[in-house]
Design a protein that fits this description.
Subcellular location (chain A): Cell membrane
Number of helices of chain A: 13
Largest sheet of chain B: none
Shape of chain A: globular
Protein name (chain A): Multiple sugar transport system permease protein
Number of helices of chain B: 13
CATH topology of the domain at 65-227 in chain B: MetI-like fold
Shape of chain B: globular
Number of domains of chain A: 1
CATH superfamily of the domain at 65-227 in chain B: MetI-like
InterPro entries (chain A): MetI-like, MetI-like_sf
Order of helices and strands of chain A: HHHHHHHHHHHHH
CATH superfamily of chain A: MetI-like
Number of strands of chain A: 0
Number of strands of chain B: 0
Radius of gyration of chain A: 23 Å
Helix content of chain A: over 70%
Structural class of chain A: mainly alpha
Family (chain A): Belongs to the binding-protein-dependent transport system permease family.
CATH architecture of the domain at 65-227 in chain B: Orthogonal Bundle
Strand content of chain A: under 5%
Largest interface: A-B, 91 and 89 residues
Order of helices and strands of chain B: HHHHHHHHHHHHH
CATH architecture of chain A: Orthogonal Bundle
Oligomer: heterodimer
Strand content of chain B: under 5%
CATH topology of chain A: MetI-like fold
CATH class of chain A: Mainly Alpha
Membrane topology (chain A): Multi-pass membrane protein
Distance between the termini of chain A: 44 Å
Distance between the termini of chain B: 35 Å
Helix content of chain B: over 70%
Chain lengths: ~290, ~270
């Protein structure tokens, strides 16, 4: 009896703390059934009206579209670039060993600080990026003042911060691969591209997929980078879902409506996580068969 | 010959990426050392001055940056310590015993990692104002668990799972109690892991922006929000912003370099080991 009870006792404190976080989540869910806002502190029950409003609003679909563009764009570029950097670091001996030590620096800088740094560098007239581009006849790019530019700029900041994340996971993966299949391929005279496509990539895929899942899920809920770089503008070209929720709940103080936005986003992220994690399990089993 | 040329090309590509990765940091150093009147004129030649840092650290401009820095320290350390106290037993229990609800609890914790922060923050914002926790250390430490607890539990669970249970069983045969076996055998063996995870959790707590943005206003505000305030005003003070940004990234950068060996496991929540 004592033995059966022990794990529960050990886990109770964590459970209590978890409830401390789950309680506001439940409270938020409850709030969304009311029209709770600063102008209406004694709210009426509106049931699911907040959600029906969310889904019929053009602003929501715009935000959802921007969020998907951002998440897919950032995760895709980071994956390709990160794997490339890992391959290059793995191949290069001395240079790689030196550079590897500093690979993680951007990743350890708070994303909001990274956005501030890039904001300073991307200023159209006085920023250093346009200064460096001037000799190429590109001195006056309005980086964050056009809709497309703002979205691409914020993705670029995300890429700057998080590419090292993909790279260090892929590098760890590369180092853990068995050497014998590669030796066999070399003996058979297989070319670089063939080896990469038929051996490296399939065996590396589980590692890459972990990175992709983390990056995609995190990008869906991006906030800091956009907040500091564009504040959702110009217009609403970079208003991702968390920014929209922030504007509704905190700026305009429509609490329940803002929370409804985050609940919808939460549900999407949760479903995406379930699908991806399931897929990850399948891929890991398949990779285990290859090696 | 062709192979060698390709090798050079690959190295060149690598260097190019690192220029992209490091230039912004180098540029902040330059910007932070520029005197205010040379900010926009001479780009790479200027007379360096520490005035920017003096202003930022000297509470001028009405922004108490040093206090924000101390606040960041206090709330990050607080969150890490609390998460360790409750997280280590939980991680140990879930690594050693399969029991009803353990997997569910672990996945609930993992789902925090991917939850949109505002889902919890907005209700907390309302709640905190009623309870008097808004803009307090306690309030911030409490909410930063969302960042630090899942990290600590998941990674320490993978460390405990790597230890063979025979070690503790041997200790039990030697007359140790369960508690002693945990404190004298299991815990010392994962000590390097605990140290690394604590520092990583500290970095994550330190770097968080959205919690202090919404749940603090002045008293408990942290550096990530504080650094942003230098951008405000009608005349942007680029050198001060750069100095503030750099000061705020020193702790995470130094800590990251010391725990580099453990980062892969930490960042992937134990999914990738190295």
């Amino acid at each position: 009896m004592r033995l059966a009870l022990r794990p529960y006792l050990l886990i109770v404190p964590a459970l209590l703390l978890t409830c401390g976080i789950l309680y506001p989540f439940g409270l938020g869910l409850y709030y969304t059934l009311f029209d709770f806002s600063a102008s209406k502190p004694q709210p009426d029950m509106v049931r699911f009206e907040n959600y029906t409003t969310v889904f019929t609003q053009e602003a929501f679909w715009n935000s959802a579209w921007v969020t998907v563009l951002y998440a897919v764009g950032a995760a895709a570029v980071e994956t390709v670039l990160g794997v490339a950097v890992a391959l290059l670091l793995h191949r290069s001996s001395l240079l790689g060993r030196i550079l590897e030590k500093i690979l993680i620096l951007p990743l350890m800088i708070a994303p909001v600080i990274a956005a501030i740094i890039w904001k300073l560098m991307l200023q159209p007239s006085v920023g250093v990026v346009n200064y460096l581009l001037r000799p190429f006849g590109l001195g006056g790019v309005q980086w964050t003042d056009t809709p497309t530019g703002a979205l691409l700029s914020s993705i670029a900041v995300d890429v700057w911060v998080y590419t090292p994340f993909v790279a260090i996971l892929a590098l760890a993966g590369l180092r853990s691969l068995p050497t014998s299949p590669f030796e066999a391929a070399a003996v058979d005279g297989a070319g670089w591209w063939y080896t990469f496509r038929r051996l490296t990539l399939p065996m590396l895929w589980p590692y890459v997929l972990v990175a992709v899942i983390f990056r995609f899920m995190d990008s869906l809920k991006v906030f800091d980078i956009i907040y500091a770089l564009t504040e959702g503008g110009p217009g609403d070209s970079t208003v991702v879902l968390q920014i929209r929720a922030y504007l509704e709940a905190i700026r305009f103080q429509r609490y329940s409506f803002g929370i409804s936005y985050t609940i919808v986003l939460w549900a999407v992220v949760y479903l995406a996580a379930m699908v991806l994690v399931k897929h990850l399990g399948k891929i890991q089993r398949r990779a285990a068969e290859v090696t | 010959m062709k192979k060698r040329a390709l090798g050079w090309l690959a190295d060149a590509a690598l260097v190019l990426y690192f220029v992209f990765a490091l230039f912004p940091i180098a540029w902040m150093v330059i910007l932070s050392l520029k005197p205010a009147d040379q900010l926009f004129s001479t780009y790479f030649s200027f007379s360096p001055t520490l005035d920017g840092y003096r202003t930022v650290l000297g509470d001028s401009e009405g922004i108490p940056f040093v206090r924000f820095f101390v606040n960041s320290l206090v709330v990050s350390v607080g969150a890490v310590v609390l998460s360790l106290v409750v997280g280590l037993p939980a991680a140990y229990a879930s690594a050693r015993w399969r029991f009803k609800g353990s997997e569910n609890l672990m996945f609930t914790l993992l789902s925090f990692r991917f939850a949109p922060e505002l889902t919890v923050i907005i209700p907390l914002f309302v709640l905190y104002q009623k309870l008097g926790l808004f803009d307090t250390y306690v309030g911030m430490v409490w909410v930063l668990q969302l960042v630090t607890l899942p990290l600590i539990v998941w990674i320490m669970r993978s460390y405990f799972a790597d230890l063979t249970p025979e070690l503790e069983q041997a200790a039990l045969l030697d007359g140790y109690t369960r508690k002693q076996a945990f404190f004298k055998v299991a815990l010392p063996l994962v000590k390097p892991g605990i140290a690394a995870v604590s520092l990583l959790a500290f970095i994550f707590a330190w770097n968080n922006f959205v919690f202090p943005l919404i749940l603090t206003s002045n008293e408990a505000q942290t550096v990530t929000v504080g650094a942003l305030s230098f951008l405000g005003g009608d005349r942007p003070k680029y050198n001060l912003t750069a100095a503030a940004a750099l000061v705020s990234v020193v702790p995470p950068l130094l800590l990251a370099l010391t725990i580099q060996r453990y980062l892969v496991r930490g960042l992937s929540f134990g999914a990738v080991k190295s």
